[in-house]
Every structure is written in structure tokens, then in C-alpha cells.
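Example record

The entry below shows one chain as it appears in the dataset: sequence first, then C-alpha cells.
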Amino acid sequence: MSDELPQVTADDEADEADRLRQDMPHSARMYDYFLGGNTNYAVDRDAAEEVIRFFPAVRTVARVNRAFVHRSARFLAREHGVRQFLDIGTGIPTAPNLHEVVQDEIAAARITYVDNDPIVLVYADSLLRSSPEGATGYVEADVRDPGHLLDVVRERGCLDLTQPVGLSLNALLHFVPDELDAYGVVNSLVEPLAPGSYLTISHCTPDFAPDEWARIAAVYGKNGTALQVRTRAEVLAFFEGLELLAPGVEVAHRWHPEPASGPSLISDAESSLYAGVARKS
């Protein structure tokens, strides 16, 4: 057996660049830019700046979403004792990650991250730094094929899906348009989960700035990413058959705001994000 390392050819590098879509704006890298991160390319920054010109508050939307991800996970761990989380549409790791927030509350918590984006795989090691008592895992799968996704999680994740799970679909479903049966996708993910599981959703909405969001959707669309923002009633429909926790589907910055977080300083239009958490009986 040879000890020589395999050679990386120009074709290999071209294939990897194609997988990472380095020549096109990418929604995950644009989100990273909105959050002030540096895991993005010039092409992402150009598209993101076009969105910002249409709607400067999009940076606030990203921060509001990130804060909700942390609050909702902490709430489920602290107030409801949820010890397992399945985070689909993970995106580029940004500290603190969901497992860090949850394991601060329950050190033995187990978290599996799922994404179909090859750029997330590049940074997946950041998602695997569990507390000694708990565990984290990362699997590559596509939410548009929920049955296969759950099969992969069962085989390669670190969760016991016969026990309650906190299923997180944050800032994801607006990238699953109606023609891909977004409601069917959610039902297919929730139905096999054990009773006592929870569904968490955050979702961009045009309810407070319709013209701006139409322009934003056009920017994403021309760059190859479908974006379908939804009304409150449409977001509420994702929770059909589940028990919504108070305050129900709410503008995200008003969902269980933490002390001194200043939700009154953010308008609904600046948030433009609905959020909710529901329990499966």
C-alpha cells in the first residue's frame, strides 16, 4: 500500500467549486453576511447589498431570527426539559450554536444538525464540539425528501427518535415553495416523532412590508434560489394538529422576549418574521 497522499487535480478543484456555488450568490452565505460574518464571497456580498438597498432592515431580520433560535431552544430545554434536538436547515455555524445554548441548560442534551448545503459540511466540525456528557452529530440530507432525511438521522445521527425531540425548522421553510409541498414536508417530519416532541418554526413574512419583500424574492429568484414568504395565516397552518405554546404564532421579537432585550425598539416591519413553538400530543 502506498503512503503517498492522493493528488488534488484541477478537475477536483473545479468540482468542489461547483458544489459550493462560488460563482453564484448563496442564501446561507448571504445570511452570514447579514449577521456580520465573514464566511461569504464577493458575489454573496453584492447580492446581499442589493437586498439591503431594497430593505435595510434585513440585517435586523437576521439578528431577530438568530435571537429567536437561541431563546426558543433555551425555553424548551429549561422550561420543558427537552433533551434532544433535530435542527434542519442548520446553515453556516455561528457561535453560539444551538447545541451550546441547549447544553448550557442540560449538559447531557443531544443535538443532530441537518443540511444539504455542501458549504455547511465544510464547517461541520464546529457543530460537533459537544459537552462531555452530551452528543452532537451532523448529517447531510435534504428537507424536500423528509422520509430519507429521517432515515439518515436514525442511521447516522445521535438521537433516539422513539423519545421526544425538539424539531427546529428555523428560517428554512420560506425556501420551500408551495410547489414543493412545504406543508406536506412538515407533516412528514412531525408525524413519526414521539408524543411530547416540539416543532419550532421561524418564517419570513410580507405582512408588514409587502413591496420590499416582493423585491427581495426577485433578487433571490434571479440568483437561483426560490423564496416564498408567507402570511401569518400561512405560517399558522404549519402547526395544524399541534398544541401551540403561548403566545402562539407571534412576530419573532415578541415571542418570549428576555429581560432588557428591548423588543419595543424593533418594529414589526423590521422584524418581518413570524415564530412559534408547538407540542405534539
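Notes for this example: Residues 1-17 have pLDDT under 50 and may be disordered. The longest strand covers residues 198-204.
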